[in-house]
Amino acid sequence: MLRDRAVCMDLARECLKRQGLDKIAELAWQGVLASDTALASDDLELLLELGLACHQQMLAVATSEPDHAISLAGWGARLYGHLLEGAEPQPEWVAIHQEQFCRYGSIWIHRRLKAGDHGWSPRQRQDLNALALQLLEQLGSYHDPLPPWIPSMSMWQELLGMASAAADATATARPAGATLITIVGNCQTHPLFLGLERALPSHRFHFCTPVHLATPEEVKDLHRVLGETQVLVMHRITPGYRDGIGLDGVTLEALLPAGAHAIVLPNLHYEGYHATIGYAHDDRGELPGLAAESPLGDYHDFLAMVAAERGLEAEAILELPATPAMDDLLRGWHRRSLAELARREHDCDLQLSPWLEANYNASGHPLPLFHTFNHPSNQLLERLLADLIGMLELENGMEPPRISDTMEILGRQRHGILPWTRQALGLPTWASAEGRSDWETSWTLAEQLGASIGFYRRHGWLVACNRKQEKFQLADRLLALALEGN
Known about the structure:
By secondary structure, the chain is α/β, with parallel strands linked by helices. It has helices at 5-17, 21-33, 41-61, 66-85, 92-115, 122-140, 152-173, 189-199, 216-226, 241-244, 249-254, 287-290, 302-310, 314-318, 324-345, 353-359, 378-392, 419-424, 445-458, 460-464, 470-484; strands at residues 180-184, 204-207, 231-235, 261-265, 277-278, 300-301, 370-372, 375-376, 434-438, 441-444. It is 55% helix and 8% strand. The strands form 4 sheets. Strands 2-1-3-4 form a 4-stranded parallel beta sheet, sandwiched between helices. It has a two-stranded antiparallel sheet with strand order 5-6. A two-stranded antiparallel ribbon has the order 7-8.
């Protein structure tokens, strides 16, 4: 199957980036952070394979390339730590390898830091020290009490001392007036963090893992960092989130020092392009187990549900032209979605709904402004980034701020846009019928819709328990009007 140019160029750039195992592991970790949906089964397999490769190579190069071994231990610990924290049970050997990532990684970092200067900047030493302390803390969860061959107490005390010295050195080397900016929120904050780092190289940043993934240790570290933060950039997180783990906005703002302030970002969400795709209702509790089989993962296609119930096929549906009544329905859904985003933005410090309303169907976009209804494109995120930098009142040079030159950070999955929607909203040629089911797998709208229809035929109970969903009723009405008009 032929891919369009954008897909081919994205893949070419991705292949160009893959210069070593640690780079591939870093890319995979960015993929983990890029979405709050559960990982598909093939992604879980990829993390398992990468972890095994990191473990094998770190032991092989520990003597000849100690810094490379440390990097591999760190990425392996992140990948396997995520697997072990997930809902899916992992083989026993995953925990065994994770223990060794933590053990050897902390020992190697401690040894390198004690050996003296290796050309590292104060910030690099500080980051390595923080990683060693985190690995050492994780290591303690595998041994109670700690065996004598883990020199944990002396290592811990020495690393804490080094951390203090590294922090003092970083403060001395920091340009006068440099600001510490801390970023907290959902998966949309990660590309903003990358863009801020590129645009403001003289400033310091602390990025907290997206809030649905953050561990108690990461939350503890965040609380410590907030005490020296000048600007907190955050999504609005409600009190009680994740059983009160300490990530809600009220708690985070209370930890800021005097004179610091918070900037609240809008959570970008727009359903105009994908009116019939959303999250399904599940009265059996079986959906998490079906995520790997579901063609759209955690998303669900309500038009496909209706088609499965009516006995219709994807190709026949996509050949039905839209009627004026269908145009009205889809334009109404578009206006309602913009109004809902404006309502959500009302108590935020930045608003993007006016710009989205003016530009949702502009001709100059390389891609739709949303890959899915809750994953905006780099272009839209860069617009928010520019507004954020303007609010920070920090000089960022002459070039417009960029997030990435090589990939759509939140574009792991891209849903095709129905021809009915393209007509109703007057969308230009960038509103392609081709999407992407994964980073390296493109598919047509007919394939996307057809796979979903087959899935719902195999799981008719899911159709039955979603009939009262508003998106199901919208899809049902659209299909009824299309059939009546033709």
